[in-house]
Amino acid sequence: MFDKSTWIRLPRNVVVGHGVLSETLDAVEELHLTGRPLVVSSPTPHEVAGQRVIDQFADAGYDPDHIIIEEASFDAVQEVIAHAEEVDAGFLLGVGGGKAIDITKMAADHIGKGFVSVPTAASHDGIVSGRGSVPEKDTRHSVAAEPPLAVVADTEILAQAPWRLTTAGCADIISNYTAVRDWELAHRLKNVPYSEYAGALSQMTAEMLVENADSIKRNLEESSWIVVKALVSSGVAMSIAGSSRPASGAEHLFSHQLDRIAPGAALHGHQVGVGAVMTEYLHTGPQGRWRDVRDALAAIGAPTTAAELDIDRDTVIEALTTAHEIRDRYTILGDGMSEEAAIEAATVTGVV
Ligand SMILES: NC(=O)C1=CN([C@@H]2O[C@H](COP(=O)(O)OP(=O)(O)OC[C@H]3O[C@@H](n4cnc5c(N)ncnc54)[C@H](OP(=O)(O)O)[C@@H]3O)[C@@H](O)[C@H]2O)C=CC1
Ligand SMILES: O=C(CO)COP(=O)(O)O
Ligand SMILES: [Zn+2]
What we know:
Layout: E1 13-17, H1 24-29, E2 36-41, H2 43-59, E3 65-68, H3 74-86, E4 89-96, H4 98-111, E5 114-119, E6 131-136, E7 139-144, E8 150-154, H5 155-160, H6 163-174, H7 176-190, H8 196-211, H9 221-241, H10 250-261, H11 268-284, H12 290-299, H13 306-309, H14 313-322, H15 339-348
Parallel strand pairs: 1-8, 2-3, 2-4, 4-5, 5-8
Antiparallel strand pairs: 6-7
Pathway: Membrane lipid metabolism; glycerophospholipid metabolism
Subcellular location: Cytoplasm
Pfam family, one: Fe-ADH_2
């Protein structure tokens, strides 16, 4: 008997474009959500967008409440849950970068309320996914969370955000190349379930971004449009897979480890980009395509070296040799790299 089944949870409304923040209320009303909106943001996103979202709901006769979180942590998730219960929130809007959006989707999942994603930075592909990613002590949890019912991505706001946030989003997408390689490897070696659709979509998304690299330029709103479309597509790949596998392989393990060893040094997307240069080298060897990954990153102005990440050589080597320990995800790192091999990979690729 055929007894396979799957759930693919995707957003119903994806609204992208110039000035669409003013359509947040319309995008939400179409979802037939009821009750009090709770707007969750972090300090800067609250200034650039959160307050305007609150005003929109207030003007329409809702009674919106809001909370501002400072960090991506399980404590922050608990804080939002407690606040949402206290004010009897009907649904939650996460307005911000990855921090605010992750916290909101995890809190919404816990209390069983709808979640709407309003990114203020095109900095990574968690804006559409049903996964939250939170560090805790020596590990990092990629947890199932409430996927957004709607995404409202205002390219005017995204284009005004610091440029480095956009190049980080590009690098997060470029890292899909190596993430898919790791996923295929884990499938072949460890029988990890693999989705051809999700793998192909993730890879195609990276290819389209690289092909459009010439149009990705500072002060050009079209750049935000190209990047956000890629982020949406990558998020959809993760939703199809039901895991972050299509967009997170060894390059992400390296980045997560950097977050522990050198917290706050660089942006998520920039770290995974540099990680992808090295893991592409590990997959394909000295004559392989690691130069293509490096050149694609350089073309959009993302870091390709440890120095550009503001991270020293020893930290890179430590992160590379310990990255496999951070979570149970089989990748090209296998059961760990020796120090000599890590130095070789980082040196040959020019990362250190
Ligand atoms: N769920 C998933 O699949 C994924 C989750 N993540 C998670 O996302 C987080 C990283 O995301 P990232 O977006 O880089 O981090 P943040 O949300 O911390 O945003 C980065 C910085 O940009 C600021 N910012 C955001 N929007 C604007 C804007 N429009 N104008 C000016 N400044 C702005 C923030 O301000 P302020 O400090 O005031 O908030 C912050 O200082 C991590 O916690 C990571 O684990 C990353 C990838 C995927
Ligand atoms: O960053 C991500 C995809 O780009 C999410 O991956 P993780 O599951 O490794 O946190
Ligand atoms: Zn990522």
